[in-house]
Amino acid sequence: MNLLIDMGNTRLKWAIESNLDIVPGKPIDNAKINRSALIQLWRDMASPNQLAISCVGTSQLFDLVVVTVNEIWPRITVIRVLSKAQGFGVINAYREPEKLGVDRWLSLIAGYDRYRKALCIVGCGTAITLDRVDASGRHLGGLISPGLRLMKEALALNTENLGLNEIPYPFGLATFTDAAIYNGVLSAACGFIEHALKSQPDAPQLLLTGGDAETISAHLSMPAIIDPDLVFRGLSLTLRKQS
């Protein structure tokens, strides 16, 4: 049994992996992470053999998680996964490969390993990330945009008399402000993805992951596969290579 941890900009996601089966646990907001919360989260779990961890958040939170994990399970092997120039059939397009977000790299290697075809992989989280990989595994580069919540927060912080509302509304033209914001940012996200795909000649398979994947997918004009565990699958791949 292995523990997989994906530390994002907003939340820590984790899962248990055993014999290639991945069972996600309950995420925890970064703002709520402390030693006591992590111990409570994992104290009743049997000791994992290995921990594979990816982190795009702060180094302070990463250090806290690693110290606490070693306190709970002193014999666990901790492996921090970083982006590479190539691996698992994928060639990284970045001139400085380590600067590609590790969550994007893990999605690339997991997506290509699973589907073995030209892909457009979209991470629908705090940021919306879009990466292309061709049928041979060559990463063609990517795009980054604010995610749904970040777009709403930008409006709330920089515009008078607008609050932050998480209520979903029917999609379409709105007759009151909260619904107009909800549908405006959702339209922006869908337009971002659809515009990027229009310029691609090889008709890649669209693959969505991340917390807002289902919300965005429901309003796209093209079919998409939703794979919520893509980053975890990438972490699991790296552990298989270690063994």
TrEMBL record:
Subunit text: Homodimer.
Sites where the protein binds substrate: 94, 101-104, 177
Top enzyme class: transferase
GO cellular component, as recorded: cytoplasm
Active site: 103
The protein, known as: Type III pantothenate kinase
Places the protein is found: Cytoplasm
TM ranges: none
Cofactor(s) required for function per UniProt: K(+); NH4(+)
Keyword terms of this UniProt record: ATP-binding, Coenzyme A biosynthesis, Cytoplasm, Kinase, Nucleotide-binding, Potassium, Transferase
Cited function: Catalyzes the phosphorylation of pantothenate (Pan), the first step in CoA biosynthesis.
Binding site for ATP: 6-13, 126
Family note: Belongs to the type III pantothenate kinase family.
